[in-house]
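User: I'll paste a sequence; please echo it back and then give the predicted structure.

Assistant: Echoing your sequence first, then the prediction.
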Amino acid sequence: MPPDKLRRMQRFNYQFVLNTVGLLLIIEAISMLFSAFVGEYYNETAVRSIYLSALISFGSGALLSFLGRKRKRTAGNLTKREVFLTVTLSWLMMALFGTLPYLFSGAIPSFTNAFFESICGFTTTGSSTLVNIEAFPKSLHFWRSFTQWIGGIGIIIFVLSFMPVFGGISGQFYEAEATGIAEDQFRPRISEITKQMSFTYLGLTVLGFLFLWAGPMDAFDAACHTLTAISTGGFSTKQASIAFFNSPYTEYVITLLMFLGGTNFLLISTLITRFKATILRDEEFKWYLLITVLFTLGITVALLASGQMNDVEQTFRIVLFQVVAAVTTTGFATADFQLWGSGYWLLFLAMILFCGSEGSTSGGMKISRLIVLSKNALLVFKRQVHPNALYVVKMNRKVITGETLSRLFAFVFLYVTLTVISAAILGLTGMNFEESIGVSLSTISNYGFGLGSYGPSGTFESATPFMKYYLSFLMLVGRLEIFTVLSLFIPGFWKR
């Protein structure tokens, strides 16, 4: 091996990568025990498979941590190469070991389907291959829901909150897992911010469970749906999703949980702990609320006017639920919006594209990017009239730098390009035009279901193995917001 190549390999801190991935597998093993306790309560045979899965995950994590025990902890020894690889591998390994309970129990005997189900969980996408959900063991239902709850806040972010193992590079890890236009503002106080986000997440989860349990749901269903609603994941314990419960109370509570899950947790935390109504002055939240209200009222009026629905309250409730589910990329359903007409599903595709707030559990491009793009477009017209005037783009009274704008344009370009390319690839696998567009956009946005046979009433069980693995790749890219994953495929990224 050439000496220069050997030196580059030596400079790569693989010990840190191994140790971090190992630590997260140990945490995943401990998480599996919660599902095992559910299995013990209901006296299910699947509980043995969960214990075995936890043991294997713990042992594998311990081995990787041992191999990486001599890692260097200082920020100077780490670059974005190690950070991006660590984050990507962490999510892949969590998803891979997350398949074990499904495989060992025989509930999902196919590895392809089990991996697809697992990564749908961790990325909070909510797609599924299950055709008889209600026959699934309760312990595995809880594991499905718990994977979405773990992935909702972000695996690394949760660890950053309570285990300061990353030291001075915490900001880099936050950027790699939760990128956005505001991450630079967070870096100086990243530890404080991640703790606020995590405690808010935990608090909303507890409150959501209590409110759902107070309705027609039993404790088990309330727990599972709380985990998947606040994480904007969309997994349900029922084949008919939330429509099964036929409860206006349940639908309104879950709507609120989804909306809160799509709201910046820092704003919620500030509102609760400091009694400051910062949330009302935040531009992103105002756009988020306005988009939700306008789409809800517009679609409600259109459905009533067309005669497709007659009851005002029921129509409003159904539309509000579907709009919030789309805006937050949750993917719950109480109705199949495809039956309303093509114009409506185009609106829903538009909603999942740019919606969701930074610092939330939702997918998509995020509303903050939509705001900046809109303001920049207006400035283009102003500059045509006043070419010598100095205009800057501001958000929340802070100037958006040229570097941030450049990164934003690159992100949107890659997002749209990858969506179009993916639609073409899916079309070659046999999907029609409508399905390929809907599935590619919904998958990269972590929404859960697309159009046609892959819509709210369908599953991905009939998809080809290639399609499932490719969609798994899209889910991961969308969850880590493109740059983290795609950077690993650029040769220049690995040069020091």
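The beta strands are 394-395, 398-399. The two ends are 18 Å apart (CA to CA).
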